[in-house]
Design brief:
Blueprint lengths: L1 H7 L5 H14 L3 E2 H11 L3 H13 L3 E6 L5 E2 L1 H5 L2 E2 L2 E2 L1 H6 L3 E4 L8
Antiparallel strand pairs: 1-6, 2-3, 2-6, 4-5
């Protein structure tokens, strides 16, 4: 029983998920690192906490991420995963790539 309950508890901060999803819905486009920094400032949330939850959302197929290099070429998932060190986004490396995130629509469809 305890294991069943633990499997149902999200591994991310659901409040941060909600404000990120709300901002995505209002923007109507994938969100950049700058969008998340602005959201963090607005809600007085550390960017590390925001990015940790985002990592967990991506890992659990709730959100997707993609990136482009300076020439506009798509960056592989392996390279994008290297942007995160101990589930924290390396800001300097992230700024090198145009990484964007968005919710996966099927994850939010009512069942």
């Amino acid at each position: 029983m305890k294991e069943l309950i633990m499997n149902e508890i999200p591994k991310w901060d659901v409040a941060l998920e909600a404000i990120a999803k709300d901002r995505f819905d209002s923007l109507g486009k994938p969100m950049s690192f700058a969008d998340f920094k602005e959201l963090g400032k607005e809600y007085q949330v550390r960017i590390d906490d925001m990015m940790h939850s985002l990592c967990q959302l991506v890992a659990n197929d709730m959100w997707s991420q993609q990136g482009f290099d300076e020439q506009g070429s798509v960056v592989s998932d392996d390279v994008l995963e290297d942007l995160f060190v101990f589930n924290r986004l390396d800001e300097k490396v992230a700024e090198k790539y145009a990484v964007v995130w968005q919710p996966i629509a099927s994850a939010y469809q009512k069942k």
